[in-house]
Design a protein that fits this description.
Number of strands: 9
Order of helices and strands: EEEEHEEEHHHHEEHH
Strand order of the largest sheet: 2-4-3-7
Mean pLDDT: 87
Distance between the termini: 24 Å
Helix content: 40-55%
Radius of gyration: 22 Å
Number of domains: 2
Largest sheet: 4 strands, antiparallel
Length: 294
């Protein structure tokens, strides 16, 4: 593998070697599936590393199994732009490799660092669709919903518990949004993307209870601006749920009864919404995996 510029791929090449999160059947592959015309399973030489859950490759002598993706000639620019928008380029560098007579682009490790470990390619290969946050994490929160009191009983423990669970739900949701829409440092572009997602819109209509009181929240700063939960307005709705998360993160909530009911109702709704979104896309991942027999 030869690194040239490192910052951008050679867009003259129609082939891309996927060995990590862009393997067919992974959540990030959903974003480039429409640009792919053909997939071939191949093996190249290299060495795999893992850093913060992200798989990296360097030159080496291990057999690395992966997939040679061929992009449609008139859409390869869009495919590469999507990949560049998703991957954290402070970790990766673009390089070129060759398999038989085919030249391809590949994302390699920009450099080895102390917090990097070697990956056992046979027994330690992570997959996004079986992420424990999306399975065990969601299930743990579902079990908790059965223990939430219907009403506030003047217990500060209930207020603390619901805030902890709501923040953990957002950890799961943001983890999914990173994989689906990109690793950029700013969350707003990902929130905008999910607000445009038809699965999110349908889930809002399905699960949001419009008869409940207190469906507006104020910004944690001046308190002058508010956003209202409206299942027919996906942009305001994701902003509403995120503002509750932000308000908890900044200073916590202590207006016991009012805060408890707002967070409780939002937690129950958003858990169902997030579960439906993640379940839908994991099913899509399995369909793609079956299509390419990966």
């Amino acid at each position: 593998m030869k690194v040239k510029d490192g910052k951008i791929p050679n867009k003259e090449l129609s082939y891309f070697f996927a060995y990590g999160i862009f393997r067919p059947g992974e959540i990030p592959f959903l974003g480039i599936d429409k640009y792919v015309s053909q997939i071939t399973k191949i093996t190249i030489k290299g060495k795999l590393l893992i850093r913060d859950g992200i798989i990296l490759i360097i030159n080496g002598n291990d057999n690395i199994e992966g997939f040679l993706l061929e992009f449609k000639n008139n859409q390869k620019d869009e495919a590469y732009d999507h990949i560049m928008g998703l991957e954290p380029m402070d970790l990766f560098a673009w390089a070129e490799g060759e398999f038989e007579t085919i030249k391809f682009n590949i994302l390699t490790a920009r450099k080895e660092q102390k917090n990097t470990r070697y990956l056992d390619v046979f027994f330690d290969y992570p997959t996004t669709k079986n992420d424990p946050y999306f399975r065990e994490g969601i299930e743990k929160l579902k079990k908790y919903t059965k223990k939430i009191p219907d009403n506030f009983h003047d217990s500060i423990d209930d207020v603390f518990d619901i805030q902890m669970r709501y923040l953990f739900l957002w950890i799961i949701f943001e983890r999914f949004l990173l994989l689906r829409y990109g690793f950029g440092k700013k969350v707003n572009p990902r929130l905008k993307k999910i607000s445009e997602d038809p699965i999110f819109k349908k889930a809002l209509i399905k699960y949001v209870n419009t008869d409940l009181p207190n469906r507006s929240v104020f910004y944690a700063g001046s308190g002058e601006y508010s956003v209202t939960l409206d299942p027919k307005n996906a942009s305001d709705s994701i902003d509403y749920y995120y503002k509750i998360r932000s308000n908890i993160t900044h200073r916590g909530k202590l207006e016991k009864e009012n805060d408890f009911m707002i967070i409780k109702n939002s937690f129950i709704e958003l858990l169902k919404i997030v579960d439906e979104i993640i379940s839908h896309y994991i099913i899509e991942c399995h369909k793609i995996e079956g299509r390419y027999k990966t």
